[in-house]
Amino acid sequence: MTDLALEWLNLVLRWMHLIFGIAWIGSSFFFVWLDNSLRKGETQQPGVLGQAWLIHGGGFYFTEKYSVAPAHLPPELHWFKYEAYFTWISGFFLLGVLYYVGADLYLIDPKVLPLSQGEAIGLSLASLFLGWIVYDLLCKSPLGKNDALLAIVGFVLLVAAAWGYTQIFSARAAYLHVGALIGTIMAANVAHNIIPNQRKAVAEMLAGQVPDPTYGKQAKQRSLHNNYLTLPVLFAMISNHYPITYGHPYGWVILAVVMVIGGLVRHFFNLKNQGRGRRYEFLAVAFLLVVGLVFFTHWDPRKKAFGEAVSAEEVHRITASRCTPCHAAKPTFDGIAEAPKGIMLETPEQLKRYAALINQQAVRTETMPPGNATGVTEEERQKIGAWIAAGAPLD
């Protein structure tokens, strides 16, 4: 019953995280698009930076953006903040339910670094907090006045963090933590810079003063950072379904390239919306990098040379003790309520059906079982691989 309750908690938190994330990313993308789409209008009033006409849902909309603020504070002002807050909160609880409660299974890999549950959780929390502090200090330093240089330094630090996580946690957890780090930075940008600066501007207007334009500039810089970080964080969120990425011995390199791809795609749309042409070269480079990743993931320095083929019966004996505790109609492994992804490996026929998946996750990348919880030996992985390489024969 406890395992089933945890499974439902996991599902509900994922659902909430997805809903809040859609709301946050949707509003973020819309306002960046709107900012880039503003144009000078014929009826534009003094102090207005630009205007935009929109049509949606059968109606027309007219919007204006002020260079600093309107002359008078409107009676009703809509704030956009809770989407970011609840996305991070639901994501953090999801991290706790899956990776902290199940630290021995998903967070810790003894082959990488033998940590206790408390040590692993402590390092996780410290890294998220420290990552935000370093980023925030960089933005407030003289480096923050040079957007291009700040972006380069920030990218290098994120890649360093990605590599560092692979030296501490399991490969799957390393990817997830890069996403959690980026998500923490994005949410903290809203909570500790964007919203406070907007509150300062509103307070000055209520006091009859003209708001300091610095508040808006600082908030816009952080908002733009969030815009470019969105696609990489989405990739990190879904990566746990694709061990071809995090399971590669140079998974951190793959993640670094994905960050570049996400940045190129966002830059294309930002330039397009600014009316600076369709710079398809950015999309072309992004496409070539994706193709390059396909070839890169095919190359694996750990590629195994298998010995003589083994029988399906021998492979079945191995998987019966190493795989079916989880992948069974009634799992016996503590904390597993049902077979992951509904995949059952209780018969030779089922093993043959999922041979390609087993080869990818248990033999090639060794990401299964998570944290090698059932103690699969290298010799056993070799035998499974030899059987699959021979065509997974049943006789």
Automatic annotation (TrEMBL):
Listed PROSITE patterns: CYTC
State the UniProt keywords alphabetically: Heme, Iron, Membrane, Metal-binding, Transmembrane, Transmembrane helix
Q: Report domain Cytochrome c positions.
A: 302-392
Question: Which Pfam family, any one of them, does this sequence belong to?
Answer: Urate_ox_N
Top-level taxon of the source organism: Bacteria
Q: Which residues cross the membrane?
A: 12-34, 85-108, 120-138, 150-168, 174-195, 227-244, 250-269, 281-299
N-terminal signal peptide: none
Annotated protein name in UniProt: Urate hydroxylase PuuD
